[in-house]
């Protein structure tokens, strides 16, 4: 699982108080509070936000036609949260708590959605595993370290698949790290001698002394590998690892540590497989779909609660925060606390949301490897056929998605893409892409506020918190889509998409730090539209499209 949540900031520097929403009312960007900043606008407050408040000002004399149903495919929800309890979707076909499948859809008491990671006894699956690890462990005994010259034609094809799996398997990386560690430990004698020669009066060496040991233009692969191995350990421990005589004498412990990390990953994987089996379904059969439970609250619900709040936290109760739109939130749990969102559950969540009236589905998750991508494609095509928009977070790896696979995505086949797909990157107040955000001139459609976005959470101490991630950017766009449909429900999915993508705050020509590398790049090269979502202009364009349809 590529967990899209990157950072959590406690309110008031963890002081335990809530910053009043009124704090957002300022024209000085240096003093703009992160509370509700994503609802502001560049025109009025000077921040590159979504212009939601301006959109409502524009719509103040118009009454919404209805509340849009929004599917939140995520990690669960606290249905008792003060800012969410009154905006939850209510299944009209179910009588709550009677233990009967009243609407005969195969899911008993699915009042506010469904938990596809729920066990038959009402508990939760919290620990998962990655699909790449599953495939690696299936094939590693046969292909790890093999002489490829002796492979048959069939085996060469399977070996190519194995190499692809290895790119994404944490267990594979950990296994290969052992060999690197063993080689690095042997090379440690060289580094130890050189450090003593360079600093004869020192007995302990920190990263500032170790760093220059690799000179620019070094070509020795063994030296480079050993250097990077030790440097990574300095960095992982925040420079607390000191190179000393004691460390050198006990250098073999680094190998043992690396082996322990590998074994832990394997043990966690097998535990995840065991827990997955408690769901009671056949994970290799997409039609085995009637499993799970209606208990939407899980330990991993914080992420889903935060996402849901951004879209539609109660705008009228004068507490907490305001969501982007007045909506009905339908929660579908697909994300375990650790591990991948499985293709099967993603597909079933999409179909459930479509069948139960959702017009837009937020998917703030992603992963680099898919085992049953066709199942997701079929479900997304079904959503497209039914006129449902899919909003997906671009991911938080700081990579160019034009050059790297990421799932789910817009591709039905090599040359055919979904018409109902919108991929969202994250920006900060200054209009720069977040340094963690994925990007892509072809694969990402637009950007939206995704840094220090304040929203609802599931936590015993706090009810609200700021988080970073494209996970936070996607629901801003989802909320804008729902806002448009609230006022113009007759518009088609393609028309609403046109309104959102055709109205961005353009950042074309703005030279910004490229995520991941920090190199300077034109914002126009980061996404298809070259801009940031603008609710006001999206509403205006939607209104124009609506009026032209009704001439």
Automatic annotation (TrEMBL):
<dbReference type="GO" id="GO:0004252">
    <property type="term" value="F:serine-type endopeptidase activity"/>
</dbReference>
<dbReference type="Pfam" id="PF00082">
    <property type="entry name" value="Peptidase_S8"/>
</dbReference>
<dbReference type="GO" id="GO:0006508">
    <property type="term" value="P:proteolysis"/>
</dbReference>
<keyword id="KW-0720">Serine protease</keyword>
<dbReference type="InterPro" id="IPR023828">
    <property type="entry name" value="Peptidase_S8_Ser-AS"/>
</dbReference>
<feature type="signal peptide">
    <location>
        <begin position="1"/>
        <end position="23"/>
    </location>
</feature>
<feature type="domain" description="Peptidase S8/S53">
    <location>
        <begin position="66"/>
        <end position="507"/>
    </location>
</feature>
<keyword id="KW-0645">Protease</keyword>
<comment type="similarity">
    <text>Belongs to the peptidase S8 family.</text>
</comment>
<feature type="active site" description="Charge relay system">
    <location>
        <position position="74"/>
    </location>
</feature>
<dbReference type="InterPro" id="IPR000209">
    <property type="entry name" value="Peptidase_S8/S53_dom"/>
</dbReference>
<feature type="active site" description="Charge relay system">
    <location>
        <position position="471"/>
    </location>
</feature>
<keyword id="KW-0378">Hydrolase</keyword>
<dbReference type="InterPro" id="IPR015500">
    <property type="entry name" value="Peptidase_S8_subtilisin-rel"/>
</dbReference>
<feature type="active site" description="Charge relay system">
    <location>
        <position position="303"/>
    </location>
</feature>
<keyword id="KW-0732">Signal</keyword>
<protein>
    <submittedName>
        <fullName>Peptidase S8</fullName>
    </submittedName>
</protein>
<dbReference type="InterPro" id="IPR051048">
    <property type="entry name" value="Peptidase_S8/S53_subtilisin"/>
</dbReference>
<dbReference type="InterPro" id="IPR036852">
    <property type="entry name" value="Peptidase_S8/S53_dom_sf"/>
</dbReference>
């Amino acid at each position: 699982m590529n967990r899209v949540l990157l950072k959590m900031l406690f309110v008031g520097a963890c002081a335990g108080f809530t910053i009043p929403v009124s704090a957002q009312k300022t024209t000085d960007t240096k003093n703009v509070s992160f509370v509700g900043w994503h609802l502001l606008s560049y025109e009025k407050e000077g921040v590159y936000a979504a212009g939601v408040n301006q959109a409502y000002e524009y719509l103040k004399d118009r009454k919404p036609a209805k509340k849009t149903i929004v599917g939140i495919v995520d990690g669960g929800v606290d249905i008792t949260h003060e800012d969410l309890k009154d905006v939850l979707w209510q299944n009209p076909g179910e009588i709550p708590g009677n233990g009967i499948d009243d609407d005969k859809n195969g899911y008993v008491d699915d009042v506010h959605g469904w938990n596809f990671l729920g066990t038959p006894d009402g508990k939760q699956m919290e620990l998962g595993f990655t699909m790449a690890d599953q495939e690696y462990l299936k094939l590693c005994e046969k292909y790890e370290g093999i002489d490829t010259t002796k492979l048959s034609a069939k085996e060469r094809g399977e070996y190519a698949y194995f190499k692809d799996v290895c790119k994404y398997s944490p267990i594979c990386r950990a296994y290969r790290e052992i060999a690197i560690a063993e080689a690095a430990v042997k090379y440690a004698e060289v580094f130890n001698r050189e450090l003593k020669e360079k600093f004869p009066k020192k007995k302990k060496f920190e990263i500032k002394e170790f760093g220059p040991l690799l000179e620019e233009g070094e070509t020795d692969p063994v030296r480079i590998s050993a250097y990077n191995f030790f440097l990574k350990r300095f960095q992982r421990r925040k420079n607390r690892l000191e190179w000393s005589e004691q460390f050198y004498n006990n250098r073999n412990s680094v190998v043992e540590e690396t082996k322990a990390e590998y074994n832990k990953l394997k043990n966690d994987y097998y535990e995840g497989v065991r827990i997955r089996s408690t769901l009671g379904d056949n994970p290799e059969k997409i039609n085995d779909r009637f499993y799970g439970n209606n208990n939407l609250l899980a330990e991993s619900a914080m992420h889903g609660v935060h996402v849901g709040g951004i879209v539609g936290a109660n705008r009228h109760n004068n507490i907490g925060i305001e969501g982007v739109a007045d909506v009905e939130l339908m929660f579908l749990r697909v994300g375990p606390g650790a591990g991948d969102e499985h293709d099967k559950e993603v597909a079933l969540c999409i179909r459930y949301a479509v069948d139960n009236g959702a017009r837009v589905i937020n998917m703030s998750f992603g992963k680099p490897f898919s085992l049953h991508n066709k199942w997701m494609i079929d479900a997304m095509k079904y959503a497209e056929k039914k006129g449902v928009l899919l909003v997906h977070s671009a991911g938080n790896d700081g990579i160019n998605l034009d050059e790297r696979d990421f799932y789910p995505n817009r591709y039905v086949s090599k040359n055919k893409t979904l018409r109902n797909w919108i991929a969202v990157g994250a920006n900060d107040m200054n209009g720069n892409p977040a340094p963690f955000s994925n990007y892509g001139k072809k694969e990402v459609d637009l950007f939206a506020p995704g840094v220090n976005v304040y929203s609802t959470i599931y936590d015993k101490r706090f009810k609200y918190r700021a988080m970073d991630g494209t996970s936070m950017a996607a629901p801003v766009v989802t909320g804008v889509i729902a806002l448009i449909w609230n006022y113009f429900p007759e518009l088609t999915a393609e028309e609403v998409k046109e309104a959102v993508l055709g109205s961005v705050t353009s950042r074309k020509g703005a030279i910004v730090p490229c995520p991941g590398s920090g190199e300077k790049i034109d914002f126009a090269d980061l996404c298809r539209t070259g801009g940031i979502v603008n609710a006001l202009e999206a509403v205006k364009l939607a209104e124009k499209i609506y009026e032209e349809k009704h001439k």
